[in-house]
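does this look right to u?? 2-acetamido-2-deoxy-beta-D-glucopyranose version
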Amino acid sequence: MVAVYSIVVLAVASTVYAGWAPPVPGLPNTFPNIAACVDQPLEYSCENTTTLKNTCCSPTPGGLVLQTQFWDTYTGFEKKGQLLPKDSWTIHGLWPDNCDGSFEQYCDLSRQYDPAPDDKTVPAYHGPGVDTFIKKFGRKDLLDFMNKYWVSQGSPSASFWAHEFSKHATCTSTFDVACYGPGYKKHQDVVDFYDAVVRAFHMFPTWTMLAASGITPSNKTTYSLSQFQTALKAQSGAIPYLGCGHNGTVLQEVWYFNHVSGTEQFGRFKPVDSTTKSSCNATGIHYYERSPKSVREVRDEL
Ligand SMILES: *[C@@H]1O[C@H](CO)[C@@H](O)[C@H](O)[C@H]1NC(C)=O
Ligand SMILES: *[C@@H]1O[C@H](CO)[C@@H](O)[C@H](O)[C@H]1NC(C)=O
Ligand SMILES: *[C@@H]1O[C@H](CO)[C@@H](O)[C@H](O)[C@H]1NC(C)=O
Ligand SMILES: *[C@@H]1O[C@H](CO)[C@@H](O)[C@H](O)[C@H]1NC(C)=O
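got this back:
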C-alpha cells in the first residue's frame, strides 16, 4: 500500500508544477482536481463502491475498464496508406463498463465528434477531425503513434478515434469536463483520453504475449481457445475476452478487463477475468496471417 501511495503522490506533484502552461510534448497536461484525489481511499474500482465518492478521481460508474484490441488482416484503406503494424495487434479502445458488465454510451452530446454514430438517436458530426485537435495541442508524437497502432478497418482511422471518444470517453467520469476546473482548454479531454488509451494498450502487448507461448499467426494451423486463454492469463494475470467471427472460427478481437485504482488516466490497472463468454469455438480457431500488402514495419519511440 505504501508503494502505491507514493506513485500517486509523484504523479500528482508533476501535474501541480505543470500548471496551465502550454502543453509540453510528451508530458501529460493534466488532471486538475488534485487535492480532492489525494484524499480519496486507495481502493480499486468495482471492489468497494461504498468508499469511492469522487467521480473525478476514479471511474464511477464504469469501473470495469476494458482495453480492447483487434486482430484485422486488412484495412480496406491500403491505397490511402492505412496499413497494419507488423507484429502487433491494433487498438480498439478503452471502455468504461459498469461493474455488472452493462454500459452507457454517448453520454455527452456536447462532445459528439463521431461522424458515424452507431446509435440512431445521436446526430452525426461534420466538423474538423479529432486529429486536428491533437495537432492543436502540439502532440505530433501521439498522432504518429495512433496512426501506427490505432488503425481502423473500413473507415479512416481518425473517424474511428472520434467514435471511440464520443461513444465511450464521454461516459468515463474521470474525463468529465467539470473535473478540469476553470483551466479547461477545449478538447484537452480528447487528447488526454487518447494518451490514456495508448498507455493502457502498452500494458497488453497481445502479439508478443501470444508469441512468447509459441502462438503466432498461421494460415496452416489452428489453435484452441484454451491455448489463447492460457498464454494471455500467464502473462497478463487474468483471462481476457476473445472474440471470433465466421461462426467462432476466426480470431478477431481481445478485451482485457481491469479494475482501476485512481483515475483512468494515471491510475493502477488490475487485470480481472472477463465477465463475457468468448464467442470463439473451443477448437479449430484460425489466427490468420496478414496479407503482406496490408502491413508495414513500425517502430515506436518508447
Ligand atoms: C470499504 O472501505 C471502507 C472505508 O475505507 C472500509 O471500512 C470497509 O471495510 C471496506 N470494505 C471492504 C469490503 O473492503
Ligand atoms: C455461419 O454458419 C451458418 C450456418 O451454418 C452459415 O449460413 C453462415 O454463412 C456462416 N457464417 C459465416 C460468416 O461463416
Ligand atoms: C464452431 O461453432 C459453431 C457454432 O457455435 C459450429 O456451427 C461450428 O461447426 C463450429 N466449428 C468448429 C470447427 O468446431
Ligand atoms: C492468410 O489468410 C488470410 C485469410 O484468408 C488472408 O487474408 C491472408 O492474405 C493470408 N496471408 C498470407 C500471408 O497468405
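The chain is about 30% helix and 15% strand. idk if thats expected tbh
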